[in-house]
């Protein structure tokens, strides 16, 4: 399978690293507009550099275009690749708005190419296993779930801090949790959110808190932060038979506590070392080859954007937002 990577930032280079670990893959080119930087990256990964996707499509044979650019540019590159009849992998969030995401999905459908979105959380074993436990009834009927995700405020990549380019905290950071929640508990029917911004010693800090009612009655609380000193992520999934907890920074991060048991079942970190990006890419290639159905669809990615939009609307109006059946 011949892959072209668009974007040479942190995610673009992470993708270039991980594609090297996937069997039967050749990266045939990398695209970026900065001529000096693209040359350095191309030499580092021993791939052919291009300053536009059009240039690459005209000069090399490619099967899949992997888009790893700022969110504001996703639509442009996805539509261009689709019109060239190339399958597309796109980093999350799929687009800045649900309207743009819908147009991107339609473009891929009209050109009969697959659009696979990198909601990587579905490929993290600690999140995939927790979903499986919930679906298998390990915690009984789910009641209240709490998820947190926090990172230092983005610096050195100014576009992240610009909501016109990244979509802001709820879309860029929150789409991880929003997607996993709908994958695990079904559609979101109601959203209430608060959003706080502060400038602290020339550093901008942001915090968001979102309450979501799921179609199955589960209540979810999602805490998002661009104000941490290091990466942190946790969850607590409580039901009438027990609870699953996870803390990224704990020595033993995952614990399953059941009412019928006096002892927690814990999962050591050593069981979780297979890289989620490699798992994701291998799955995407199986989908393109017709060997598997997508674990995450473009429609799922669209729903995550709609939830983020509802959170933004609620935080601006101070009122809850009701989503129709299907997350819309």
Automatic annotation (TrEMBL):
It comes from the Bacteria. Gene3D superfamilies: Dihydrodipicolinate Reductase, domain 2, NAD(P)-binding Rossmann-like Domain. Residues 1-119 form the Gfo/Idh/MocA-like oxidoreductase N-terminal domain. Residues 131-323 form the Gfo/Idh/MocA-like oxidoreductase C-terminal domain. It holds the Pfam family GFO_IDH_MocA_C. Belongs to the Gfo/Idh/MocA family. PANTHER family: BILIVERDIN REDUCTASE A. This is Dehydrogenase.
